[in-house]
């Protein structure tokens, strides 16, 4: 859920420590992502709710997702295996590995009105052309809203 909600690479997800979760800003800090770059990405409310339940149940010490023994982080292979097991349990037969969650995040972010430059920052891409590879969407799927609707609704509350 966290990989999809924030557009993470698996290597980034396994290196998250609890202090990387910025609840008040609904952001997730990515330390030393690809290219040894630090960045922030968004954190979904539903993902935060699940993380809080997870935290209460497991109380991780160092890494948010510790591996066997609790000291080191979970391995990339363990994440891939968990993803494949979850797909099988859910009856999902479609091909695609755990990285497809990042791809889906990017596509759905754009379809729901997010901007390409904002997406570039969230994904941690240096080159815009890398981000554009994720933009496989049709105009019928875009659910962007007019700023008039967004701001008039917020002013009415």
> Tally of extended strands?
3
| The CATH class | Mainly Alpha
Unreliable residue stretches: none
Looking at the structure, what is the overall shape?
A: globular
**CATH homology superfamily name:** Intergrase catalytic core
CATH architecture heading: Orthogonal Bundle
Distance between the termini: 31 Å
The CATH topology annotation reads as: hpI Integrase, Chain A
Task: Summarize the biggest pleated sheet.
Answer: 3 strands, antiparallel
**Can you give the helix content as a percent range?**
40-55%
Q: Return Rg in Å.
A: 17 Å
Mean pLDDT: 87
Pairing-aware structural class of the strands and helices?
mainly alpha
Number of domains: 1
Summarize the helix and strand pattern as letters: HHEEEHHHHHH
Q: Roughly what fraction of the amino acids lie in strands?
A: 5-15%
Number of helices: 8
Q: Strand order, main sheet: write it out.
A: 1-2-3
Textual characterization of the structure:
This protein has helices at about 1-5, 10-15, 45-60, 75-90, 100-110, 115-125, 130, 145-155, and strands spanning about 20, 25-30, 40. It is mainly alpha-helical and about 160 residues long. It has a single domain (about 1-155), classed as Orthogonal Bundle (hpI Integrase, Chain A). Strands 1-2-3 form a three-stranded antiparallel β-sheet. The two termini are about 30 Å apart. The model has no long low-confidence stretch (mean pLDDT about 85).
Walk me through the topology:
Blueprint (H helix, E strand, L loop, with lengths): L1 H5 L3 H4 L7 E2 L4 E4 L8 E4 L2 H14 L17 H15 L8 H13 L4 H8 L4 H5 L14 H10 L1
Antiparallel strand pairs: 1-2, 2-3
